[in-house]
Amino acid sequence: MTYDVPVAPGEKAELEERVEGSSEGWPMWEVFVRARRGISHVHIGSLHAPDARTALQNARDVYTRRGEGVSVWVVPSSEVSAFEPEAAAEYVDANEKVYRLATTYEIPEEVGQM
Amino acid sequence: MAPPARFQEIIDSESKIEPSDWMPEGYRKTLIRQIAQHAHSEVIGMQPEGNWITRAPSLHRKAILMAKVQDEAGHGLYLYSAAETLGVKRNDLQELLHQGKHKYSSIFNYPTLSWADMGTIGWLVDGAAITNQVMLTRCSYGPYSRAMVRICKEESFHQRQGYELLIRLCQGSEEQKAMAQDAIDRWWWPSLMMFGPNDSDSPHTEQSMAWKIKRVTNDDLRQQFVDMTVPQADYLGLRIPDPDLKWNEERGHYDFGPIDWEEFWRVVRGSGPMNRDRVEHKKRAWDEGTWVREAASAHAAKQQRRAA
Q1: Which residues are within 8 A (CB) of A91 and not within 5 positions of it... i.e. 6 or more apart?
Q2: B90 touches chain A (CB under 8 A)
Q3: Which ipTM was obtained for this model?
């Protein structure tokens, strides 16, 4: 099924999103789930809730209905700080420092696996 | 590298665009529109099946139906979250739906008249949705693609329970089989319309394909769906209501008859059997839930005061 909004012949696609009468709503939380013991929590999605306790309850209902996790974290989205090395690559190119990589060192074959 | 060139490089290399990346304004707006329509479809899609929860023929079928409707609420949530990464607010999108400025898939503007509709919706409507959503897992926008992966896993349950329901009906009495046939007679053509207008009448397809928001055209997806579904109807012993339907050896696909696009546009424009009911019901549910949201906010504020 297609979800791109069909535009009838002779009509123009309306791309604006102007809204009157909408309420602010609850803050957003990021949800992290540990799928099983021994592995890290992984970001799985987000949701809205008035506080951490409700966020956890909602996360349980929305993201772990089929045994997807053994532990859930919720974090207010506004508390997440981010850095993206990819965007900063033109200043600091990690690939220039190849001496940090194990594969740049040649070990004679007779030494065996190292 | 200039941001537009970087954007194109990511698209060309089959990598994913993430929320913090630069993106053309048209790409952003197209995604907001599409993801919102998709989210609204999941939410409105709860109604046709919710209609049968209290009348399910057994406790087992009732539990299945409730689980399915709950999944659809969850799918709506994943999708609104994906849309919010593009800088819009969920409440705004919902308000646009309430005001009739946003649409949802027209399939939900048809009524669910019999129990066999529960099976047919799972098999055909969710089957058509999966065909499209599997393609969308390869969409170039990361959050949308990830939401699709989760949704596809759950949709498989939706389709299989529907088909199994129909197997049971088709193995039952003559009346039950007739009920199943009546359901497919009503849902077949609207299901084919779910894939949208023919490619020749779909002006945005080209741009969406170039941006890799969409990976397969409407007509190709529709063909894929028909090819997959005809043998499944044969197994059930049900007749697909299309006299032109036949296997084309040369093409390696089924040929099928023309779609009534006038009906499609009539329903899109608001004159389907259920358009008005669906939106009114949605608004009523939101209004009647106000006290629940207010109580949750008040409780959260109280807990915070006590902890301070």
Answers
A1: none
A2: yes
A3: 0.88
Residue A83: its pLDDT value, please? 82
Residue A89 in this model has a pLDDT that exceeds 90:
no
Other residues' Cβ atoms within 10 Å of the Cβ of residue B26? 12
Distance from A111 to chain B by nearest Cα, in Å?
Answer: 40
Inspect the interface and report whether the beta carbons of A3 and B107 lie closer than 8 Å. no
pLDDT score of A25: 84
**Sheet bearing A28-34, strands edge to edge:** A41-48, A28-34, A71-76
**Which of A9, A21, A54 is closest, CB to CB, to B296?**
A54
**pTM for the complete prediction?**
0.91
Choose the closest CB to A47 out of B81, B150, B197: B81
* Rounded distance between C-alpha atoms, residue A31 and residue A39, angstroms: 16
Helix (H) or strand (E) holding B253: strand B253-255
pLDDT over 70 (residue A37): yes
CB contact under 8 A, A4 and B201: no
Q: Is A10 an 8 Å CB contact of chain B?
A: no
User: pLDDT at position A88, please?
Assistant: 66
